[in-house]
Design a protein that fits this description.
Elements (H helix, E strand, L loop, with lengths): L1 H15 L15 H8 L8 H26 L13 H14 L8 H12 L5
Length: 125
């Protein structure tokens, strides 16, 4: 049992990598790293609730803006499967993708989000 707990703790530590404590500066979301930091804030942090709610709101807001523009132009660049993933599933997939693609850490989070979405759920031509 103790080994399982230690293994889980080690895995969590490796998953977080160099993630540091969430700061108020992360809420400026200037980079993909900032939004990932907010989305992965540990529950033990004082800013956890604000960070996770901001994360979801930011990413959902970007998606809603895309949906509004796509409907107006009658042209989607992302086509979700039927049934679509839940919001939490999509965010977790985005975070995993970001971890696998650290070259985008310094880029605009909206740009990175849509790189992920267009790769994951492209529209057929």
């Amino acid at each position: 049992m103790r080994r399982s707990v230690l293994a889980a703790a080690a895995a969590a530590w490796l998953w977080c990598g160099t993630v540091t404590a969430t700061t108020s500066g992360d809420f400026l979301v200037k980079t993909t790293h900032d939004v990932v930091a907010l989305c992965t804030t540990p529950e033990s942090e004082p800013l956890y609730t604000a960070a996770v709610n901001f994360c979801h709101g930011y990413l959902v807001g970007a998606w809603q803006y895309h949906a509004a523009i796509a409907a107006r132009r009658k042209r989607d660049i992302v086509c979700l499967p039927d049934p679509p993933p839940t919001r939490s599933q999509a965010i977790q997939e985005f975070l995993a993708w970001c971890k696998a693609n650290p070259q985008y850490d310094a880029e605009s989070p909206v740009e990175t989000l849509f790189k992920f979405l267009m790769e994951k759920w492209p529209c057929r031509k």
